[in-house]
Amino acid sequence: MKKILICGAGGFIGGHLASKFIKDKNIQLICVDIKPIEYWFQNFDDAENYSLDLKDYNNTIKVTEGVDDIFNLACNMGGMGFIENNKAECMLSVLINTNLLRAAIKNKCAKYLFSSSACVYNGSKQNETFIPGLKETDAYPAEPEDGYGWEKLFSERMCRHFTEDFGLETRVVRFHNIYGPIGTFDGGREKAPAALCRKIIKAKNESSKVIDVWGDGKQTRSFLYIDDCIDGMLKVFNSDSSEVFNIGSEEQVSINQMIDIIENITQYKVDKNYQLDKPLGVRGRSSDNSYVTEKIGWKPKSTLKEGLMKTHQWIGQQINSGANIDKFCKSNIE
Question: What confidence tier does 332 reach under pLDDT thresholds 50, 70, 90?
Answer without folding.
Answer: very low
